[in-house]
From TrEMBL:
It catalyses: N-(9Z-hexadecenoyl) ethanolamine + H2O = (9Z)-hexadecenoate + ethanolamine; N-docosanoyl-ethanolamine + H2O = docosanoate + ethanolamine; N-(5Z,8Z,11Z,14Z-eicosatetraenoyl)-ethanolamine + H2O = ethanolamine + (5Z,8Z,11Z,14Z)-eicosatetraenoate; N-octadecanoyl ethanolamine + H2O = octadecanoate + ethanolamine. Signal peptide: none annotated. SUPFAM superfamilies: Amidase signature (AS) enzymes. Keywords: Hydrolase, Lipid degradation, Lipid metabolism, Membrane, Phosphoprotein, Transmembrane, Transmembrane helix. InterPro entries: Amidase_dom, AS_sf, Endocannabinoid_amidase. Its EC number is 3.5.1.99. One of its GO terms (molecular function) is fatty acid amide hydrolase activity. GO terms for biological process: fatty acid catabolic process. This is fatty acid amide hydrolase. Substrate binds at M212, S238, I259, G260, G261, S262.
Length: 603
């Protein structure tokens, strides 16, 4: 019926257009002079539009080129400055305790440490393009630290890398988008101020995917970032440059952000540690985000680090009392050492399947090895099936994704109107332009065969009314309550689970499998802290199992793509998520510490 009505409407519109065209031709024949004026004006209008289009493109290319040159000049300045430095790797490879000790007893100066890290970071970035530009003022900070007689603080002289969307005074935060170039931050993000107060030296800014809604990293301003462990694979996103720089050995610790896995997925793919905090616990002041107006799905800033000890130190520094003094919107909840140091045995839930993506054998093995390791530390580990049963976890993530892209990405399309659009976002931008009826039909029809793919069309329909939007937010709130009830019912202290259902996908396929981020989305949806610990590496036996239908059979389109992408991933890092209830970051770190120790990975 709907199709018949639409066909009828089209026919009526065609007839109307034909009539208007015939009337216009008749009018122009009767008034040749007016006709030529109208045609000239129309021609000039079209020409004007074409000229304007090319003019905007020219301006936009010029703006981008100028910014690229400025970044290159900064890179060259620092590269020249550290050209003579030798054996920088000896400093860079020191453990965080050794480095702190050397900085505190004066056997290494802040300048020596900084220059060693600058050299290494630029060397790593030459291969994998993870740095957008150095922070030129770092040198001055090191100089004044060395000159001061103050008591050495928690991060005295430690270089910290910073994701490009986080404000550094004097620099713009672009997210790889032309429209943001030149919006210079007047002051540092609160978190950066907190780190500086602890004596840290922000030294490199790191790359991100255009718009930050992608697990690959490419943008027309700073280019593509590659995985330090395997250049054909994605380093993950959107805190890509951080993951790649730290994983590649060019930084010990850094700051990223996460609204759907952006801290955890790069950490997993690059073999490093991270902690996505509860929303609200860490100040977001000074973070560029495109979802500020959407209070139901909110990004967080969080720490990333090469090893557990560095992550702990960075988190302790971040969660210091002066954060809520600088940003009174953050609750005054400084790091609770007593909570972190408790040793009582815990009851920990685990799962290896969330009802959406089947995890591949190495990813299942990682969780099972983490389970055994935690049991060996005296904890009780029990199966937590809430995410799987009745598709509950899947439902929650569907609400989350739908609310996240509530405007069908209209805002991003507007911001990118005069820009080159990167592969990481173009497909989703186009999806948001499909007629709603087509998305709904696709969701319905595909739903019989592939519920995951169908749900993407379901999220892409947007909302017809405010009421419909508020209903979906209510669904999300109800889901949060059900999830909490299930957690409390099982009396859990923590949960361990996969970060991603496969090893890091290859760069050519990653943009086709964005929904595989769903293992992370769940903890954005419920707003629980979630850390990542690298547990194992893909072995030949894992791959044999993955490609043996007796052990693993891909069913959905996404699982088939991921399987293709897993070929050749031997040696790649696989981590697990450690999750706790909101505002229990200290407990989350405790579980991560126990797991790290039990795996024998303590630095
Ligand atoms: C209208 C398009 C519909 C697309 C449907 C796809 C559903 C969701 C895409 C979500 C992608 C999430 C990536 C999040 C990465 C991230 O955490 N970024 C952090 C920003 O600070």
């Amino acid at each position: 019926m709907i199709i018949a009505a639409k066909t009828h409407l089209c026919k009526m519109m065609l007839v109307a257009y034909q009539n208007v065209a015939a009337d216009t031709v008749r009018f122009l024949r009767g008034h040749p002079r007016t006709g030529s004026v109208i045609i000239s004006l129309a021609g000039a209008g079209v020409l004007g539009k074409v000229v304007l289009y090319f003019w905007y493109r020219h301006l936009s290319n010029k703006k981008r080129q100028d910014r690229q040159q400025k970044a290159k000049a900064n890179i060259n300045e620092v590269a020249e400055n550290v050209a003579e430095i030798t054996e920088s790797d000896l400093i860079v490879k020191k453990s965080i305790q050794e480095l702190r000790q050397a900085l505190c007893n004066g056997s290494l100066s802040a300048m020596e440490v900084l220059m060693a890290f600058q050299k290494e970071a630029l060397k790593v970035s030459k291969d994998i393009n993870c740095v957008t530009e150095p922070i030129i003022e770092a040198q001055e900070m090191a100089r004044s630290l060395d000159a001061s007689q103050e008591v050495k603080r928690l991060l005295h002289g430690i270089p910290v890398s910073i994701k490009e969307n986080i404000a550094i005074a004097g620099y713009d935060q672009t997210a790889g988008m032309e429209v943001h170039i030149g919006n210079i931050a007047r002051e540092d993000a609160v978190l950066v101020q907190v780190l500086k107060d602890h004596g840290a030296i922000p030294f490199m800014r790191t790359n991100i995917p255009q718009t930050m809604l992608s697990y690959d990293c490419t943008n027309p301003l700073y280019g593509t970032t590659f995985n330090p462990l395997d250049w054909s694979r994605t380093p993950g996103g959107s805190s890509t440059g951080e993951g790649a720089l730290i994983g590649g050995g060019g930084s010990i610790m850094g700051i990223g952000s996460d609204i759907g896995g952006s801290l955890r997925i790069p950490a997993d793919f690059c073999g490093i540690f991270t902690l996505k905090p509860t929303w609200g616990r860490i100040s977001r002041k000074g973070m560029l985000t495109h979802s500020k107006g959407n209070l139901s799905v909110r990004p967080v800033i969080g720490p990333m680090a090469r090893d557990f000890d560095s992550l702990l130190l960075l988190t302790q520094a971040i969660l210091s009392p002066n954060m809520s003094e600088l940003d009174p919107l953050v609750p005054p909840l400084p790091f609770d050492v007593k909570e972190y140091e408790k040793t009582s045995p815990l009851r920990i839930g685990f799962y290896t399947y969330d009802g959406t993506f089947q995890c591949q054998p190495p990813n299942v093995r990682a969780v099972m090895e983490a389970k055994a390791a935690l049991e060996a530390m005296g904890h009780e580990v029990v199966h937590f099936d809430f995410p799987t049963i009745m598709g509950e976890g899947f439902q929650g993530c569907k609400y989350y994704a739908h609310v996240l892209v509530a405007d069908r990405l209209a805002k991003l399309r507007r911001l990118l109107a005069n820009d080159k659009v990167s592969s990481g976002i173009s497909m989703n931008l186009k999806l948001g332009q499909l007629p709603v009826w087509l998305c709904k039909a696709a969701e319905f029809i595909i739903g019989f065969k592939d519920h995951m793919l169908a749900s993407v069309f379901g999220a892409a329909v947007g909302f017809r009314s405010v009421e419909e939007f508020l209903d979906k937010v209510q669904d999300l709130e109800d889901f949060r309550q059900r999830f909490l009830d299930a957690w409390l019912h099982m009396a859990l202290d923590a949960v361990i689970c996969p970060v991603f259902p496969s090893p890091a996908p290859t760069r050519d396929l990653v943009n086709m499998v964005t929904p595989a981020g769903i293992y992370c989305w769940l903890y954005n949806a419920v707003n629980y802290p979630a850390g990542v610990v690298p547990v194992t590496q893909v072995t030949k036996e894992d791959l044999d199992k993955t490609f043996d239908p007796k052990h693993y059979q891909p069913c959905t389109m996404y699982e088939k793509i991921l399987l293709k992408s897993t070929k050749g991933s031997e040696g790649h890092s696989i981590g697990v998520q450690c999750v706790t209830l909101p505002y229990k970051e200290e407990l989350c770190l405790r579980v991560m510490k126990d797991l790290t120790q039990a795996l024998g990975k303590q630095s």
